Each structure stands twice: as C-alpha cells, then as structure tokens.
Protein 1
Amino acid sequence: MSNNIESILTETRVFEPSDAIKQQAAIKADKLDAMYAKAEQDHVGFWADLAKEKLSWHKPFTKALDDSKAPLYRWFTDGELNVSYNCIDRHLDTKSDKLAIIFEGDKGDVHHYTYQELHDEVCRFANTLKTQGIKQGDRVIIYMPMIPQAVIAMQACARVGAIHSVVFGGFSAEALKDRVENAAAKLIITTDGGLRGGKAIPLKGAVDQALAKGCDSVKKVIVYQRTKQEVVMQDGRDIWWHEAEAGMSNYHDPVMLPADHPLFLLYTSGSTGTPKGVQHGSGGYLLNAMLTNEWMFDLNDKDVFWCTADVGWITGHSYVAYGPLAMGATIVMFEGVPTYPDAGRFWQVCQDHGVTVFYTAPTAIRALMKFGKDIPAQYDLSKLRILGTVGEPINPEAWMWYHEVIGRGECPIIDTWWQTETGAHMIAPFPGVTPLKPGSCTRPLPGIDAIVVDEEGHEIGNNSGGYLVVRKPWPSMLQTVWGDDQRYIDTYFAKFNNQYYVVGDSAHKDADGYIWILGRIDDVLNVSGHRLGTMEIESALVAHPKVAEAAVVGKPHDVKGESVFAFVVLNTDLPAGAERDAMVNELRNWVAQEIGPIAKPDDIRFGTNLPKTRSGKIMRRLLRTIAKGEEITQDTSTLEDPSILKQLQQA
Ligand code: PRX
C-alpha cells in the first residue's frame, strides 16, 4: 500500500478531454455545471426529476424519498414499475431489430440477440419460472458462467418480481451453500459447466455438493446445457432449461412492483463475520445504473459497449445486465479469459465486434501490459472512444499504458470509484468535461454527496486525507443487509453516529479537490479487484483439522494489486522440507474448496505462535511487514513473545 500512496501523491500530469470527445459527448461542461447546481440546491428534487425523465413508470411516484426510518432509506416508494420492462419492452417500438447482446464464447463461438429476441427469451424463461412455482419475493440463486442465459435469468427474475442472487461461478460449493442458506432460496439456476481458457469447469457438480449438505429451502434446480459434460440429474428436483422452457410463450406480462421492491441480493465480504447479502431495490437502483452508463460512458445508439466483468459481481449487474440495457445499448458478453488462446484475446474481441466503449479492471490491464504493446498493435482498435476502469486504484503506469497503447492517446480513461453497496458509480470523471489525473477517480457525481472526514467526522480541506463517507442518501444505495437491519446500521453508519454512510476506504483530497482512493481501512483485501475478508479466509483455514490458528494479511502484488498471505499455527509439530510443501499445498487447496480459487493464499508461513500483544490481539501490522519481506522497525515492546517474529521471517 505504501508504494501506491507515494506514486499517487507525486502524480502531477493532467489530461484535458480531446476536442473529439468534447464534441461527441452528450454531457458538456455547461450541462454538468447546471446538474451540480440543481443537485446542490435540491438534492431530492434532482433525483426525482431524473427518475421521472429516465424511467418508465406504470404508476408515477408522489414522494421521492422516504427517510422516516433513516438510515434505512427508501426511494420512489409509492411508484410502480418493472425493471425488465424498462430494460427491454420499452425499446421494442423503436429498436426491436437492434442488437442487445453480442456474445462471444470461450472457443470463439458468436451469438447475437436483438432486443426482440432478448424479449422473447426473457419472456419464455419468466413463464418457466412461474411454471416452476416462483412467485414475487421468492429468492432465486443464479450460479452460471458468463453466457447470455445468465442475463436472461436475471431479467426473467426481475420480470416476475423474484429476488435473484447471482453467485460467482468461481465460488466453491461451500460458499454457494452459505449464500443459498442465508437467502433461503427456493430455486437454483445453473449450467452443467462453463468454459474458461479451453477447459470445462463443472458447476452443477458444485450445486449437488452444496445441496447434499443442507439448503433445505431449495425445491428446484434448472440446468442450462452449455458444455454437455456429464451431470447427475435428481428426479423431481433437477430439470433441464430446454425441457422446462419447451412450449412456453414468447409473451409475459411483467409484474408491476413498488419501486422499492428488492431486485437482488449480492453477497460481499466485510471485515467481520460471514459475507453479507447486500440488498438492492428496483427503481432507485435502476436509475443510477442507467444514468451512469449515460454519464460516464456516454452511450449512444451507435456504441458497442463491453464491460468485461462477470455477472457474479456488482459491475456485471450495473454495467452488463441492467444499466446499458435500460439505455437501449448494444453490449458485448464474453465467456472466456483475457489470455486464451493468447494475450491478444481482449483486443481481438474489441476488433471483431467493433467495441467503442471498453470497461475493465486495473488487474487485467497490468496482466496484459506484461505482454507488451506489440500484441494490441496487431488489432484494429480504432473504434474505441472511451476506456473505463474499476475495482481498485489504478497505478499511473497502467493508466498511461491503457491511455496510450489501447486508447491511442485519445480515449479518456474513466476511473470509476464505487462499491457493491453503492449500486453504481459515485466518483468518476465525465468523458467530455473532466480533466484527468492518472490514478484519481476525480470528483463525486452530481447528487452524490461524498466527502472526506477526519477521525472526529469533520470534513477536511484540500491537501489532506481521511475517511471517505457519503452524507446524503442516493437512489441506488443498498437498502439493507438481507434479513439484518442492525448489521446494516452497525457496518455502514455506526462509526460516525449515523451521520454518514461510511464507505470503508480512506482517501486523499488534492489541491484541486480531486479524490485519490488509498485503499480499505478495514480488514478487507482487494485481490484482482475482488473483495475478500481476511476473517473469511482465516475461518476457512482454522476449519482444517490440522490448523490451530491463522492470520491473513494482504501483500502488494504487481498484477493482482494484493495477494493473500497467511500465517498458520498447526496443532502438530512445525513442518519442514517436503512435509511443509505438502502442507502448504493442502491448505491452499482447502481454501479453494471452502471459498473459491480467488481466495487461495499465494504464501503460507508456519509458526509455533502468532505475534500477539499481552492482551492476545494479533499484531497484523507486523505480519504485513513480514509479508512484504521488509525489516521490522515498528515498536515490538508490547509483544508477548518477540522471538516469534524471527521464526515467521525465516520460515
Ligand atoms: O476499495 C474500493 C475498491 O473496491 C471496493 C469495492 O469493492 P466491491 O464492492 O467488490 O466493488 C468493486 C466494483 C465496484 C471499494 O471500497 N474500488 C472500487 N473501484 C475503485 C476502487 N478503489 C480505487 N479506485 C476505484 N476506481
């Protein structure tokens, strides 16, 4: 982290928007100024006007914000709408033949869906859900690879008023089971498997394992056939997608729902306990998901937008499954990985489908940067006009490479700061207006009252750092933690007496008021742009029969941003040589099985104890220093047993 902070603070380059993008972009400086002024003057009215203008309402709302139970805010509550109607049906009059989804599979297979075709698919599947007994408010787990059927399943849930929870296909059976049980889901939608980098990854098998261990709420499993690998179908419970869908009508009347009806849950890691089900509503969520596609990506009718995120993450919700479709845009969905069959794959997809706006994560840029600029030079990337990034602070070197090598020095880099909880972008530049500084996500959007405060909660001036917080509610903010309002309040509001939504990141504000995100203030790691709680990984490790204690910290990593570094105390003798290597392997695989391969520790060190204070608190800052391989210069006088440090350093 310290490297990151230094490189951020010494960055002085400023990039003005090019004349081309200034002319092209729908939002120009005067319009943006007017938006800021309006939002400043009448925060709730600003959002209410946009909600009326941008969304199609079945029944208009009369009250924009219900803050009677603050901080449990609800938006547009007496209005009624359907999210899927807003993403699909309302475009059919003018855009039925326009492409909604361009899909490229891992092996290069391509499939197109027009808005009409997407409508028909979603309707058939909505009718299928109804036939399988799914009703408004039921929870449905979607555990699928990055294929159009995942979006079709999400949209179909939205159409019938079922609350979906997409579980990333890379999560293990154990992680899936926890989420199914927390949501008390009635149905799981999955595939036989998914294709990634030329390999078939089983998914139905993991569902079977999860269901064998509990998940009593699950009545049905719908299985889409993707890989044709062998699966076991359980009579009465499991049904093939194509069989369930046979004979279903292409028409389905969307259920009109109150605007604050939950649309989805998405589980994310925090500093304590098990992952929490972040609950998002319908109208407010969709408004910001849609608007930020317009504001940050300037999507117009000619654009082809590719967001590389998996639908298992919030980015895949707001910038694949919902936001761009609400705009009536054409999106690209890609099943594979950036390096298969070679490191030119992303650029080949951009070229072949004429991608104009591309959105990915710094970890992907850093990984591809390593292969040099000759690879992207082999592809025609001339249609690209806007490049976006999300998930972690982008280091200026990666920013410059993205801008120059991929963006020909012309495409603005839209660094978007936001979170699962915020639903949509919060701090980001407008492509046609905002001067850019590599590594800064620039300024809060109009209507987003994000500020930086000190330990006492007072707003700080420029040229200083502190806690990033949001003062006023905004439409796409999480509604609560599923089934646990108290945890919502404790996690996000308690620190400053319910005054602010507390983001969990620290930030620096520079002389121009630009925000530079420094990283998490809690025990959350950011590995390749994915949030992992150190607690979760520690709990997984201690669940192993041979592990007595474990502490996990992040270690700076030049591609992943951070990697997982675990310190482990076994309840056997300290292992050495081949025995130690075997134990390391065993524990890495164990974590992959308990949580998923993304949580696998890169390093594991064994000791006879962990460095603790006399009161028993693990001194994580010392562990971070050891993980980095640096000399310990901190005060160690409060340690119970200082000799443990030598042992962990040498191990
Ligand atoms: O620490 C911030 C980092 O990712 C966290 C949110 O993670 P998650 O909920 O998984 O959502 C990721 C995709 C929105 C934030 O608290 N983060 C996200 N975007 C940025 C970022 N850090 C710096 N710059 C960003 N652009």
Note: The mean pLDDT is 95.
Protein 2
Amino acid sequence: EQLSGASNKLAGKRALVTSGPTYEALDPVRFLGNRSSGKQGHAIARALSLLGADTVLVTGPTHEPDPVGVKIVRVESAAEMLTACQASLPVDVAVFAAAVADWTPAQVATAKRKKNGGAPPSIELVETTDILATVSKAGNTRPRLVVGFAAETENLVANAQAKLARKGCDWIVANLVGGNTGTFGGDSNEVALVTARDVETWTRATKDMVATQLAARIADTLSK
Ligand code: CTP
Ligand code: CA
C-alpha cells in the first residue's frame, strides 16, 4: 500500500513537461544556446511522476540525470521541441519550463563557416514558433491545464500577467532572474504563481520544493 495517499493523486493522468535550453544550429559545429540548466523542469517532471502521472519530459541538452519513471524525449532545437510536444498530446496537464530560443538562424550552413580574411559574418535570425502559445490554442487537444514560465528581470507580475493573456495559458510561474536572484543554474527559486484571478508569491525554496508544491497544486486542480 505504498502507493496510497499523496503518491497517487495523479494516477491515470498524463503530463507533458518541457525543460532545458534549446540549441539553434548555425552550421554543423556551432549553435546559439542559453544557460538554462534544466533543473526546474526536470524536478517538475519528477514531482508529477511521483504523484502517479504518466509523464513525458521533452528536454533540450542538459547535464541533469533522467528522472526515474519518466519518458524522456531528447531534442535540440525549438522546432524539434514543438514537434515532440505536439506528438505527446493529448495530456491532462502541460508545464512549459524550457528556455526556448526566441530566434533561430534563418539559414543553417551545411558546411562549417570558414574565416576567409573578410569581415565577420552577420547572422540573420527569424523568430521561433511559441510552443506554449501553440499548445494553449490547440483546440481539441488543448490540455485541461497549461502552465507556462516567465523569467523576468523587472516588472515581474505585470509582465507575467501580460504573458498569460497573450499566450492563452492558465497559469504562469514567474521568477525574477539576474542580479542576486540567480535562477539559471542555481538550486533555489523564488517564484510567483500568476493566474487569471490572482497572484501568489511563494517563499524562496529549492527547485525541488517548488516542483513538489507546483505538482500538488496541479493535482488539486485536476481533481476538481
Ligand atoms: N516559450 C515557448 N516557446 C517559445 C518561447 C517561449 O514555449 N518559442 C515558453 C517558455 O517555455 C515559457 C514561456 O513561453 O513557458 C515564457 O517564456 P519567456 O521567454 O518568458 O517569454 P517570451 O514570450 O519568449 O517573451 P520574452 O522572452 O520576450 O520576455
Ligand atoms: Ca523568450
């Protein structure tokens, strides 16, 4: 009877989580990336799985260990992450914790770019597809609960509320980055849970604790 009580609140439910950075190729050896560690997203996948959810983790390149019991789909680019997320639908809840590149090179060189004595190349970028917004507006296959993240350096709550409305998700987990709040790579996180109705500021906690708290909230909401 180890699986009774808190550990089976999400039994029979399906969850999708994105995590890590994306890598956008410039040529066969170079990419544009970011410093996301994947710690928060991986912890959320682990926490949902511990509550009994059938969990798929779509992740960019990280050094995090694979969460036990979670189906892992490894991707590199934002475009690959979108395809993998769409392939994992339908789910009951989707949590988009990945730091998806906002821009990707317009062209990927098929051979390594070489210095040839001229001026440095400039790189033309195009915007990536917003995975969170796409899944939030997916019609028939929209998960019942869609949770996004927002990393902001200022105006945390106002920016998060604007993102919630623009993207059409249900909740935004907002956190301040930069300065001493250092989220990227760190083990703790100070977040606000922003919904259409209200804003809850959570006390600073480890990323594992934030994940556990978020998974419990998700379980409560899906049980109603
Ligand atoms: N996101 C996504 N696909 C993208 C860009 C962002 O799914 N192409 C998701 C992130 O995983 C996160 C949320 O959108 O859950 C917000 O990401 P964020 O970078 O804070 O917002 P942006 O809309 O990209 O706005 P900006 O970076 O300009 O603040
Ligand atoms: Ca962004």
Note: The radius of gyration is 18 Å.
